[in-house]
Specification:
Length: about 500
């Protein structure tokens, strides 16, 4: 219902008898005059009275009268078009020679479901239950028997108009409340999207597990390491390759103790490789009774740290052994000094030699530290060299092989994804993240200049499907201007030779 002023209330009168219409006009014209007098009297009383008195409403009424059912329906249509709806319709049942009032009430109810309808009749041939079934809902329909008195008409008009006005205000309040709820929901969605983006950008492997050891959520790093289909599986199967929960299970401890747990654990990757992580578990969600619902597990890869630790431990043990041996030599030398002062010079020389060896040991530790840093750079170079020397040549050979024409789109997509690892273009990465696998295949073939017919033949899909993919690609990449050539756009934003054109990694000299 649209917002309308309380005064005046518009009332529709539909009756074939002219004296009935005149009776309604007389009643409501007198009421309007009385309302003005009462309003003036209240204002005068408020001027001379120091007490606060309730300001009761004094409604006025605007009457629209017609003598046929179809005219009543037309009047309601006009009132809705001009934004001035009727609050009440008084409709006579019999209005010859046209349709009856029940027909008019049915059509008026379809046009305006909020209007209050009063059925008037001097006969008893139509039962009120029949009218109520034809003109629902029952709480917005009144049945009165002729003849009636003017004060009855006033009371019905006043009560139903105030009811109509109150229901309109209530609907406005509901609509405003729905709008606020929707705004809150949208706000929560945006917060959820931001939070999901933050969680997905974390380089640690994260997952949420319920009390039955089911993995209910995992970030992209965990899926990359343990498989895309890990959600829904048991944590002990995915992480440890076991058939039952671990004896020293962090998830069980967190649910039992309701607090943070940390420990170092060994995992089995999707390829069967063993990995060492520093694991932290804590409650992520709770039930209404504050009992833990899910546990958040964070795995931090410490394989490299463990390797460095191992190398440092070995170096320390070797240094300690050398130190122990040299200490023993020094002790023997001191004992000899006590026995023979004559050998003091020789003993001094031995001490100097020992000091030199300690300096060499310190230098060896420094070189070891530099070697560790150099190994990190070496791993990066190996990744680059493997990509350019092994992966890309294989892709190139496959693309040149005529028997691989059917998978040409997949080869282009694979080459594009490999090149994206070395691309500094935000558009390149955005295209890969926005498009589905099938859309990436279509985009790769479009970039090669193939027509929709050739693409449909290669991918074994209909030409209409290819055209739909073209539209979706333009929509996702926000290419609204139809004059922009999709082939040129994809070639400039999805280059296939980034690795070959990129500068090779710099190999540092070990002594620098």
């Amino acid at each position: 219902m649209k917002t309308i002023p309380m005064n005046p209330f518009r009332i529709l009168i539909a009756d074939d008898e002219r004296f009935i219409l005149d009776l309604f006009r007389q009643v409501f014209s007198r009421l309007n005059r009385d309302a003005k007098v009462q309003s003036k009297a209240r204002r005068s009383k408020e001027t001379f009275s120091s007490q606060n008195t309730p300001n009761l409403p004094s409604p006025s009424f605007e009457i629209v009268a017609c003598r046929q059912a179809d005219k009543a329906v037309d009047a309601v249509t006009d009132s809705l078009e001009c934004g001035r709806p009727f609050s009440i319709a008084f409709i006579d049942v019999r209005m010859p020679p046209g349709r009856d009032g029940v027909w008019a009430a049915e059509h008026i109810r379809k046009l305006d479901p909020d209007m209050e309808i009063v059925i008037m009749t001097g006969y008893t041939d139509i039962h009120p239950d029949v009218i109520a079934r034809r003109v629902p809902p029952a709480h917005k329909l009144i049945y009165i028997q002729k003849p009636f008195r003017s004060h009855e008409i006033y009371q019905i008009a006043f009560a139903l108009s105030m009811k109509w006005h109150a229901e309109g205000k209530l609907q406005e309040g509901h609509k405003e409340l729905e709008t606020r709820v929707e705004e809150q929901i949208q706000g929560f969605k945006k917060i959820s999207e931001k939070l999901d983006g933050i969680l997905q950008s974390v380089t640690d492997h994260m997952s949420m597990i319920d009390e039955s050891y089911n993995i209910v959520w995992a970030n992209h790093m965990a899926k990359k390491l343990f498989g895309k289909n890990m959600v829904g599986k048991k944590c002990y199967q995915v992480y440890y390759g076991r058939d039952k929960p671990c004896q020293n299970c962090m998830v069980r401890k967190t649910f039992a103790h309701d607090r943070l747990h940390e420990q170092e654990k060994e995992f089995v990757g999707k390829h069967g490789n063993k990995m060492i992580f520093w694991c932290t578990s804590n409650v992520a969600e709770r039930y209404e009774d504050d009992h833990p619902k899910t546990v958040l597990i964070i795995h931090r890869d410490i394989n490299e740290h463990k390797q460095i630790e191992k190398e440092l431990r070995k170096a320390n043990e070797e240094a300690a052994l050398r130190y122990k041996n040299k200490s023993k030599t020094l002790y023997n030398t001191l004992k000899k000094l006590e026995r023979k002062e004559k050998d003091l010079a020789q003993h001094k020389s031995n001490l100097e030699n020992l000091n030199e060896e300690m300096i060499e040991t310190n230098r060896a530790l420094s070189v070891l530290t530099r070697n560790i840093d150099r190994n990190i750079e070496s791993y990066k170079n190996k990744i680059y060299e493997t990509t350019t020397a092994k992966i890309l040549p294989i892709i190139k050979d496959l693309k040149n092989n005529k028997s691989c024409q059917r998978i040409m789109a997949d080869l282009d997509v694979l080459e594009t994804n490999v090149n994206s690892l070395y691309s500094n273009s935000n558009n390149h990465h955005e295209i890969i993240s926005l498009l589905t696998d099938q859309e990436m295949r279509v985009a790769a073939l479009i970039k090669r200049g193939l027509t929709s017919q050739k693409i449909s033949n290669l991918l074994c899909i209909s030409e209409e499907t290819v055209k739909t993919h073209r539209k979706n690609i333009r929509k996702k990449l926000k290419i609204k201007n139809s004059s922009i050539n999709l082939i040129s756009y994809l070639k400039s934003n999805m280059p296939s030779n980034l690795i070959r054109e990129s500068q090779a990694p710099v190999h540092h000299h070990p002594d620098l």
